[in-house]
Amino acid sequence: MKTIGMIGGMSWESSKIYYEHLNRMVKEKLGGSHSAKSVLTSVDFEEVERYSFSGDWEKIGNLMAEHAKKLNQAGADLVVLCTNTIHLVSDAITNAVSIPFLHIGRATGEAIQQKGLKKIALLGTQFTMEKDFYTKILEEEFGLEVLIPDLEDREALQSMIYNELVKGVFTQEAKEECLRIIGKMEAQGAEGIILGCTELPILIPGNEVKIPTFDTTKIHAQKAVDFALS
């Protein structure tokens, strides 16, 4: 079994879900008392959040590269960045280490392709929805048509994620707001919904949505386990 290296803390609310998924998936695969071999390095999210809102992605890239190197030195065989948004600086990670980096957008694209869907809606932070680091992979590598909510709904998601979800606040009001946005995307022809913020699957269980949802945390964790056991 290979050792999975995780860069967590963005937020730790979803990082703990990654750890749970990895260990459950390894146990399901191997049985007995098996669990995932892993190494975790975790950032102070306040720092990352501050750089994100000031647009200083170079500093975030340098920080992620530093943490990826720590994982490499600690014996990790692959790197998993436990967040969607910060994949914006994924090149900084791949350039910093010699071990494989598993991109969450690519793993999600593969999962959507397996379902045979063509038109998909992406929910997440404004950075994830509005910049092309995520949608470009889905469109160019997987031939998907990617829909994003209108500006008002993108701003609502941004506020909800940063003011509530990353702080561990998951309310019924926030859930209803997300379901309302999902309903609008379905009306626009979305065949499925990418829960493209690792906290969103905590708020919105897939069984509460009529069309397929793609839990990026679970998909990413499964990809890491498949790689580790290959």
UniProtKB/TrEMBL annotation:
<protein>
    <submittedName>
        <fullName>Aspartate racemase</fullName>
    </submittedName>
</protein>
<keyword id="KW-0413">Isomerase</keyword>
<dbReference type="InterPro" id="IPR001920">
    <property type="entry name" value="Asp/Glu_race"/>
</dbReference>
<dbReference type="GO" id="GO:0047661">
    <property type="term" value="F:amino-acid racemase activity"/>
</dbReference>
<dbReference type="Pfam" id="PF01177">
    <property type="entry name" value="Asp_Glu_race"/>
</dbReference>
<dbReference type="InterPro" id="IPR033134">
    <property type="entry name" value="Asp/Glu_racemase_AS_2"/>
</dbReference>
<comment type="similarity">
    <text>Belongs to the aspartate/glutamate racemases family.</text>
</comment>
<dbReference type="InterPro" id="IPR004380">
    <property type="entry name" value="Asp_race"/>
</dbReference>
<dbReference type="InterPro" id="IPR015942">
    <property type="entry name" value="Asp/Glu/hydantoin_racemase"/>
</dbReference>
